[in-house]
Predict the structure of Thioesterase domain-containing protein.
Amino acid sequence: MAEKDQDHPPSAPPPTSYMSEPTSDPALLDPFRAIAWSNSLLNSPDYYPIRTWSRLFKPHTGEDGFFASTLATSSTIPHCLTLRRRNLLPPPQEPPVWPSPTATPSSAPSPIPPDIIMMVDLATPGVSGHPSTAHGGVVATLIDEAMSLAVAIHAPSSGDHPRGAIYTAQLDVRYKKPLRVPGLVVIRAKVVARVGRKYWVRAQAVQEESDENNGRGLGGPLEWAKKKTVVTDAMAFWIQTAPSL
């Protein structure tokens, strides 16, 4: 079992056990088993489901209250599930080139396997900005949360000492298309470089092309073949503080 949250240092990466133990909780899996696209991701041999650390409210500190409480209602984000890549490779040790502000973001999902896949069921009206469209701040939040988990699985353990806290130092978000709601969005996050306690992370928010079912993936047996489009592309720079001794 994962260690209790009250024994965990505030803002530190999730316990290693929490990020490595598979979950078979029907309450977490069943909502995504009912959607063809997310079910196909659950069946991938390269990934397995884990509990999402930031969906666990830490009452002794109030940590993760936004994602675990405010955005965990029937009208906001009723369901969220994280998939972790089984065989992680250490990220390169050379910082990547930061994308130009005028660069055209890709509309196709990256062919590079992500470290983390976060599947999110978005409801209305709680996450809406424009009609039937997720608020840009909510989209940025989802990307930031998925990135934090990608960093966490690469953050080194410090033996008996707590690992240092991880923070977003810079987040560059490119909104390419509206994210439709209600519906499923998949966040793909990968650490693309690490130098000491510095991490560079890329992420994409991906959604299926629209249909009469409003993108929820309930239209028929060929749902898995529908075109997947990047609605938001992002890159971030993360830092991890020194462990407390």
User: Anything to note?
Assistant: Confidence is low (pLDDT under 50) at residues 212-224. The longest strand covers residues 183-195. DSSP finds five helices and seven strands in the chain. The chain has one domain: 24-86+112-209+224-238.
